[in-house]
Amino acid sequence: MTPTLRTERLLLEPYVPEDEDAFVALFQNPQVTRWMGDGTGTEAEDRALFGRIFSKVYAQDLFAVWAVRRDGALIGHAEIKPTDTVSGHELVYALTPEVWGAGLGRELAEAIVAHGFDALGLTEVHATVAPANLASLAVLGRLGFEHVRDIAEDDGGTTHVLTRRRPAGHPVPA
After folding, report:
1. Whole-angstrom Cα distance, residue 116 to residue 139?
2. Is the pTM of this model over 0.85?
């Protein structure tokens, strides 16, 4: 079950059906999806994706997926999920451009990484980032992520794999 997490300025909680329009608006924003997967999909694809969060991810308790809220408004999306791409758990997050530059990406990513280490007992958390996504690379670098390898993409591009390892002495959950 996706737990509710709180940071100084953010609330991460499971989506509710009423979030659908805000979710679709987030994923229809080309500034947001520029760095995500295959970019902006159709509205129908995003509505179907939102439905699968409930019918598959939450129903089967596959991994944590959060609506990211600030002052009650949905401002982002976050996940930590197992993936074969990195042979471990990957951090995924996106925020609406209106809140960029306020340190919320770092706050959000730190909360998810802490959840991975503390609640899931992970020894490392990974992120995949396009080399041109300098803002995300900077955020993750400040959080202690290190570039470990590159993935050659089918389109000829490259994706960086970054990893943050559990700090020495960090307790492992029982």
Report:
1. 17
2. yes
